[in-house]
Amino acid sequence: MSVVGGMFRKMAILSVKHVCKSYKTGLIKKKTKIILQDITFDVQEGEVLGLTGASGSGKSTLIRCIMRLTPVDSGTIIMDGTDLLQLSPTDLRQSRKVMQMLFQNPASALNPRKTIRESLAEPILIHQLPEATLKEIPGILDMLQLKKDLLDRYPHQLSGGELQRICLGRLLLLRPRLLLLDEPTSMLDVSVQAQIIEIMRNIRKEYPITVLFVSHDLALLKAVCDRIGVMEQGKLLELQPVEELFQHPSEQYTRDLIRAFNDF
Amino acid sequence: MDIRIRDLSVSFVTNGKNLAVLKNISLGLVQGTVTAIIGESGSGKSVLGAALARLLDPQAVISGRILYGDTDLLLLDEPEMSEIRGKSISWMAQNPVSAMDPLQKTGDFVTEILDFRKAFPSERLQEIGIKQLRRFGLQNAETVGQSYPGALSGGMAQRVLISAMTVEEPEWLIADEPTKGLDAMGRRQVYLNLCQLARERRMGMVLITHDLRLAERLSNYIAVMYAGEIVEYAGTGEFFASPGHPYSRGLVAAQPDKDMKPIPGDITDLPASASGCSFAPRCPSFCDRCSEKQKMVEKDSHFVRCWRYVQENGDTFR
Questions:
Q1: How far off is chain A from B30, nearest CA to CA, in Å?
Q2: Per its UniProt record, what InterPro entries does this chain match (chain A) (predicted)?
């Protein structure tokens, strides 16, 4: 156990330290656009940590950097004592078994030419899990409140909510310890969103999965997170427990954001 | 003028099968008021909005009437409809950035329709465009007008789209998911812009949205759609105080600031009886009578397509 801010907390499962990221823009007159500026925070084992901020504040880039889908300029990203940025491609693939990402648009996350059964089996085959894992697919469908006759359909034959649950099922078959969710319900309506959140809550009752949840929806983050971080123009302005953030935001941008949320 | 939708049905033929997206929709839209259309993805909300602006795919099979005053919009030819579209009834697409030409400056986009109609001398268009952008809270309107869509934030792009779609001061605005993908500040700004149009300029609005909080704050009436049908219609205050249809109750309870309780099942679950209630497979109050065709029943201008609403409220129905 470590001591953070005078409170005992669990060990950090993920430590992001001084991460910076920029892009070069322009063909002739090259300019540097800074996307992430010196981002430092820990994600504690078993918590749901929310990240919010305006479009373009760097939320999605940050979790893509954590997954190593986007290279960083500098900094370290440590998962269970291992610096992910130093891993070889083979070791990186191993690390992705325990750290999985759910994308915003489920329709574009699935191969349209594969049946749902094939899409669910794909990560098991890629990560060379025992063949017995394939037998877990029906059980996963039950957990996701999906009917088994969906298995032989193609993605275009499913609704947005069903597709997102299939994407979640693909990740859960790998038994990850950390889930990175990038606006997973922003394309879904409130009832489907509530269904996915309920499923996540049920799963977390069975095994303590840690979640990093990116969303611009403050109402949603307030309902599901333990702590929320606020980003603006590539900076992590503050990171606080939910109640503390809503009652005593320390940064002006956060105050404006919460005022807009409360006024609306 | 009011818009009256009468028995509107829309279907699409895919792989030789007829897919009914709207089923006998009848709805009255009162001039100068805001009607929010809410419901799950796939319930037909956006198709209804596009039908009102006559922007559906030419392959769509349409029947029924859409009366704008005494004119049936479905009987107009395209030049006649072009005169109405934008001037009288304007449609705001769901994704503002993809609704714009990526190679056209936003200022030109805002005034494109005025240029098309030769409504003003071309040298005045820039000034009109800037004034229109400023009206919707874009203080640096000159810079925004010279930008391309890709350079705008989600909130700014949405305000540019509102500016363009209302530049001809239409009587009606059909706004399809105007707050989708926006953060709290962008959402509030768009809400204030739409409020300004509804309250100050008395613009009638059809607000198609998943955002129940926006619907509650902005609209006068709520129409709830499920599987191509309107299952409930009421004044907004009355609706949120006591939603009548089991689906509407589920929708309200699923909001993050309420219980966040999901509705079991999925919109693709089909009822056992084709003529019965579409929501029956997911309904917590299901019984045999739900296999019968459900009529819209009314009590004090609150319309609900569920026989249980009669049972719960006595027999004082029309």
A1: 25
A2: AAA+_ATPase, ABC_transp_ATP-bind, ABC_transporter-like_ATP-bd, ABC_transporter-like_CS, P-loop_NTPase
B16 within domain boundaries: yes
Angle at alpha carbon of residue A58, lines to A52 and A60, rounded to 5°:
75
pTM of the model: 0.85
Range of the domain at B209: 3-88+170-312
Instruction: Please check whether residues B225 and B143 belong to one and the same domain.
Output: no
Query: Which residues from B are below 8 Å from A when comparing CB atoms?
Result: 39-42, 153-155, 180-188, 191, 210, 212-214, 217, 250-251, 254-257, 260-264, 266-268
Considering B168, B196, B213, which residue would you say is the last residue of a domain? B168
Cβ–Cβ gap B256/A52 under 8 Å: no
Q: Are A55 and B181 a contacting pair at CB < 8 A?
A: yes
Grouping H, G, I as helix, E, B as strand and the rest as coil, residue B268 is coil
C-beta atoms of B257 and A158 within 8 A:
no
Nearest Cα of chain A lies from the Cα of B313 at a distance, in angstroms, of 26
CATH number of residue B293's parent domain: 3.40.50.300
List pLDDT tens digits, range A7-46: 435 689 999 999 999 988 777 777 888 999 999 999 999 9
**Which value, to the nearest 10 degrees, does the dihedral of the CA atoms of residues B178, B179, B180, B183 take?**
150
Residue B318 lies in a domain: no
